[in-house]
């Protein structure tokens, strides 16, 4: 009959603890009315309790800190810190101790050990301590693998491992919307929602533009010569609350002059978000490159450089148009102006504009008048390429407010 030998106990003990900030202690108030049998006894006990706030004893507000009672939640972008201790529980000296800490994610395995060198010896009741830090960059299951190898006095090599599994959660929900302006400007609206269970202090939300753009933040207003954020002095984001951030991206001058280049740009930049929670734990997230749907201008793009907001009825007004060749061939253009029921063009229709090379532009000063009051749409421009006998129609280019000539229009 074969007997299995008893499992040998290890001489070393491994302990792993997560390092987190303490939390504010909250008391549970027990009180009653003065006419009840205890009278003012419970209220007096709460007033004498050092953990309560004077004057707010029954509001569960504490002013003392308490150590974490559980592992807690870990969110993407935060720093995971852990304390690893290996203690010699035996009465003999252990040699060649090597402690290794790896973090296994769904895509990679990371070595978090501060040192990969072995400790020569560890006497009884002594320990080896190490603190590891890692900025969490993946969502999902993470496994902290701690391995210990050592040699006994008898020369026997020993080895054991321990696994600690935890989940990394998503702290923020980020949604983006793009608006393409006629002037090649791009407006980005970023909606950021706090999907954790605690409030966040939003330290920074900025947009790092791509190489072709300059960015201007539109999240502040000018009050008495000072720039004040639209979110107030305390930019806290409560759980499940959403905040909108707005940015304007303008193409750099060297790229704006090349219509063919800026036309196809889809990469805008990336958001950099920094926040703090609880007692100052810092988190940071950077989105991947944000991409928009590039506007389709066709072969010829017509945009307005200047137009008045308000004009007088039956009085001429001026606009400036910019025509850009977005194709890869030279065009010979003819301009035609077609009147509508309310908008009438002044000038000669069917005039030659000449040749326009690829990525080149020309500006036209045009004169119109309106015979109808109200908000009128400017339409009726036609461009014909005589090379290909192709006509490009431009309607609803812009809108202008037409008022009676008795009303003075400010220039």
TrEMBL record:
InterPro entries: TRAPPC13 (IPR010378), TRAPPC13_C (IPR055428), TRAPPC13_M (IPR055429), TRAPPC13_N (IPR055427). It holds the Pfam family TRAPPC13_N. It comes from the Eukaryota. Residues 172-295 form the Trafficking protein particle complex subunit 13 middle domain. One of its GO terms (cellular component) is TRAPPIII protein complex. Residues 308-402 form the Trafficking protein particle complex subunit 13 C-terminal domain. Residues 10-168 form the Trafficking protein particle complex subunit 13 N-terminal domain. Belongs to the TRAPPC13 family. Part of the multisubunit TRAPP (transport protein particle) complex. This is Trafficking protein particle complex subunit 13.
């Amino acid at each position: 009959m074969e007997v299995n030998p008893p499992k040998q106990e290890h001489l070393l003990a491994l302990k792993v603890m997560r390092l987190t900030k303490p939390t504010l202690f909250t008391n549970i108030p027990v009180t009653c009315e003065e006419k009840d049998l205890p009278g003012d006894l419970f209220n007096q006990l709460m007033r004498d309790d050092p953990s309560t706030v004077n004057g707010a004893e029954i509001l569960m507000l504490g002013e003392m800190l308490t150590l974490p009672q559980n592992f807690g939640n870990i969110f993407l972008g935060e720093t995971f810190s852990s304390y690893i201790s290996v203690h010699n529980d035996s009465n003999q000296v252990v040699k060649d101790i090597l402690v290794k800490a790896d973090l296994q994610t769904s895509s990679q395995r990371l070595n978090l050990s501060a040192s990969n060198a072995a400790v020569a010896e560890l006497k009884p009741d002594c320990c080896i301590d190490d603190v590891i830090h890692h900025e969490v960059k993946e969502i999902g299951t993470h496994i902290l693998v701690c391995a210990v190898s050592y040699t006994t006095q008898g020369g026997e090599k020993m080895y054991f491992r321990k696994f600690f599994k935890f989940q990394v959660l998503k702290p923020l929900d980020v949604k983006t919307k793009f608006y393409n302006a006629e002037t090649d400007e791009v407006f980005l609206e970023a909606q950021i929602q706090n999907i954790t269970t605690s409030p966040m202090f939003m330290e920074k939300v900025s947009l790092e533009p791509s190489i072709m753009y300059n960015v201007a933040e539109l999240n502040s207003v000018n009050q008495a010569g000072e720039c004040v954020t639209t979110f107030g002095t305390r930019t806290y984001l409560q759980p499940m609350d959403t905040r909108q951030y707005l940015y304007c991206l303008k193409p750099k001058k060297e790229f704006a002059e090349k219509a063919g280049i800026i036309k196809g740009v889809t990469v805008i930049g990336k958001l950099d978000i920094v926040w703090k929670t609880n007692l100052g734990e810092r988190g940071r997230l950077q989105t991947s490159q944000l991409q928009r749907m590039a506007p389709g201008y066709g072969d010829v793009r017509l945009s307005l450089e200047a137009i008045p907001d308000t004009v007088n009825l039956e009085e001429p007004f001026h606009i400036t148009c910019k025509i850009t060749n977005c194709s890869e061939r030279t065009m010979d253009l003819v301009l035609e102006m077609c009147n509508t029921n309310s908008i009438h063009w002044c000038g000669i229709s069917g005039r030659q504009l000449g040749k326009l090379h690829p990525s080149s532009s020309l500006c036209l000063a045009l004169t119109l008048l309106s015979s109808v009051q109200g908000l009128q749409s400017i339409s009726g421009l036609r461009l014909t390429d005589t090379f290909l006998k192709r006509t490009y129609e431009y309607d609803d280019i812009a809108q202008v407010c037409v008022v009676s000539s008795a009303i003075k229009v400010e220039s």
